[in-house]
Design brief:
Elements: H1 2-39, H2 44-80, H3 83-89, H4 94-134, E1 145-157, E2 160-174, E3 179-186, E4 196-206, E5 211-222, E6 228-239, H5 245-248, H6 260-271, H7 276-291, H8 295-308, H9 315-341, H10 347-370
Antiparallel strand pairs: 1-2, 2-3, 3-4, 4-5, 5-6
Helix pairs in contact: 1-2, 1-4, 2-4, 2-8, 2-9, 4-8, 6-7, 7-10, 8-10, 9-10
């Protein structure tokens, strides 16, 4: 029985992967690539290569959708042909009937996680690099001018948590080795007041000592009453800063093109900046990445329970209902993500709440079908 049900589930699942990934690809990339070919002169071979490299990302989104469609179509077909009645007359419960679908969903969850971690980041980064090189829009590996890096910390004032600036780093230019035209404003004292201002002509990192070597500069030491208490000029001054030049000049990264482990490392880096909005955005995206594969299990329960109910619906109807349910799920996911970035709910809930809601609905539908 298990072999028979899984065999019946596989064909609609493979059909769904092809159909949904093609639809998402067309909406997400195909139209834009066609426009690039027509307007920017992008070679067709490059467009095809970019489209192929983006396909794994769309397949990942298609896996949960296909599981939902597979459950609805397969168990709906069983119900329409009275096979459900035959199974039940042999004493087989609804819970046992949907077990093969749940097992298949766990397998697909593992495949989805594998794609999301090992295939999608590499393919997406290569697609972006290939497209930008072809259009001659390649970005440098680091910022070359006007590098501004603020660092914040959280303090409690009058019982309220606030983000305050502790250090502001500015460099006019960076050639990959030497930074020039530097200004560092230091407010790292416990009271949060300005303590010193450093101005230097240039600076390089001494990697052996892990210190910065500043040249031809001035340090203005500031008293608690905001007056200058001392001015020190220097030709060479070594100081320790928490970041290397390439970390300070690193271009903004896209968490969508990174694995979960890379995203977590990136989150630790940007925590030093204290940019709360950016930190929340990356934290929510990490939770979304972790939660996405488990949508397969949720959709398996919902699709199987809806298909197993007595009804006579065709494949087109099942496809249409699947699309509506998928749209509803991603709408809830979008709303939860917005609530997470607005600090109304935690990043964990922002990523996992749609799954919890879907799991509750799926279990309720299965219980109703069992009655």
């Amino acid at each position: 029985m298990d072999r028979y049900i899984i065999t019946q589930l596989l064909m609609p699942f493979l059909f769904g992967v092809g159909a949904f990934s093609s639809i998402v690809l067309a909406v997400g990339s195909l139209f834009d690539l066609v426009r690039q070919v027509a307007e920017a002169g992008l070679p067709i071979t490059i467009a095809i290569e970019v489209m192929a490299l983006k396909m794994p990302q769309y397949i990942v989104y298609a896996f949960p959708m296909s599981i939902l469609l597979s459950g609805m179509m397969t168990y709906g077909s069983f119900s329409a042909s009275s096979e459900i009645i035959a199974f039940r007359s042999c004493g087989i419960s609804v819970y046992r009937l949907i077990l093969p679908a749940v097992i298949l969903s766990f397998i697909v969850t593992g495949i989805t996680f594998f794609f999301n971690e090992l295939v999608v980041p590499i393919a997406s980064q290569r697609a972006t690099t290939t497209l930008t090189r072809a259009l001659k829009q390649e970005k440098p590996a680091f910022k070359k001018e006007n590098i501004i890096v603020p660092e914040y910390k959280e303090v409690v004032r009058n019982g309220n948590k606030e983000q305050v600036l502790v250090r502001l780093f500015y460099a006019e230019k960076f050639d990959g080795k030497t930074m020039t035209g530097l200004t560092i404003v230091d407010r790292s004292q416990q009271d949060g007041k300005l303590s010193q201002i450093l101005n230097a002509e240039s600076a390089v990192l001494d990697s052996e000592k892990n210190t910065w070597d500043f040249s031809n500069g001035t340090i203005y030491l500031v008293s608690p009453d905001a007056s200058y208490r001392n001015i020190v000029t220097f030709q060479h001054q070594q100081l320790q800063l928490p970041k290397s030049p390439f970390e300070l000049a690193a271009p903004d990264k896209n968490p969508d093109d990174m694995s979960v482990s890379e995203s977590m490392d990136y989150l630790e880096q940007i925590r030093l900046s204290g940019d709360n909005k950016k930190i929340l955005s990356v934290a929510v995206k990490i939770q979304n990445k972790l939660a996405l594969p488990f949508v397969c299990i949720v959709f398996s329960l919902i699709g199987s329970a809806m298909g197993i109910r007595p009804q006579r619906t065709g494949k087109a109807t099942s496809f249409g209902v699947s699309v509506l349910m998928i749209f509803g799920y991603y709408l809830v996911m979008f709303v939860c993500g917005a609530l997470g970035q607005a600090e109304i709910i935690s990043p964990f809930l922002a990523g996992w709440l749609p799954n919890f809601i879907g799991l509750a609905i799926g279990c309720w539908l299965v219980a109703q079908a069992a009655k």
